[in-house]
Amino acid sequence: MTFIKARNLLKQYRQGAKTINAVDGINLNMNKGEFLAIIGPSGSGKSTLLQLIGGLDRPTKGTIEIDDIEITKISDAKLTTLRRDKMGFIFQNFNLIPTLTAAQNIEAVIAKRSKSDRKKVKEVLKQVGLEERANHLPSLLSGGEQQRVAIARALINEPEIILADEPTGNLDSKTGESIIQILHNLNKRNKKTVILVSHSDYVKKYADQTIEIKDGKIT
Hints:
A hairpin with a 2-residue loop joins strand 4 and strand 5. The strands form two sheets. Strands 6-7-8-3-9-10 form a six-stranded mixed sheet, with helices on both faces. The protein has a single domain (2-218), classed as Rossmann fold, CATH 3.40.50.300. The chain is an alpha/beta fold. It has helices spanning 46-53, 76-86, 102-107, 115-127, 143-155, 173-189; strands at residues 2-15, 18-31, 35-39, 61-66, 69-70, 87-91, 161-165, 193-198, 209-214, 217-218. The mean pLDDT is 92. Helix 5 (143-155) packs parallel to helix 6 (173-189). It is built from six helices and ten strands, in the order E-E-E-H-E-E-H-E-H-H-H-E-H-E-E-E.
């Protein structure tokens, strides 16, 4: 059964007198529990496509359905709730709060503070191999460790879908591949649906499905 479906997606931006088609007529189907890699050079539209699927932006035309919910038609409030309940986001820039420890950065996502929530923080840090670094500030963590904190933060609300936008872009190749391996394990062991944007071809070997984008179109 199709879990994520996009039809005739178009996203346009104005650049002076010119109209830019950042995403241009894209269609895709994705089953629950799949790992999708979206590959393309800088400026190809791959991050824009991810933002549309994740409900961070709305298309100029076209539709997106997630678990039979047409997210292109629901209100901003309902879309916010859907993102909170179903999605976890990971970005190229780790977006950690520098004055908070690794554990506190994850706790900041949780609305309530309780013993069970603190236990969940420990569990997600363990999932990414950082339980012994829980009380370290971001400045005391390597780039790879900071990205693992960002992954743990994305997992804390137990999302069905993980959307990762160039999560290895600021990392060396060896560290970057270890981050992709974590996402691959979350997909295979924890049955998370993963959508990964990258400009690196090596991520293809981890994916169930790969689409390549250039100038807003699937090539």
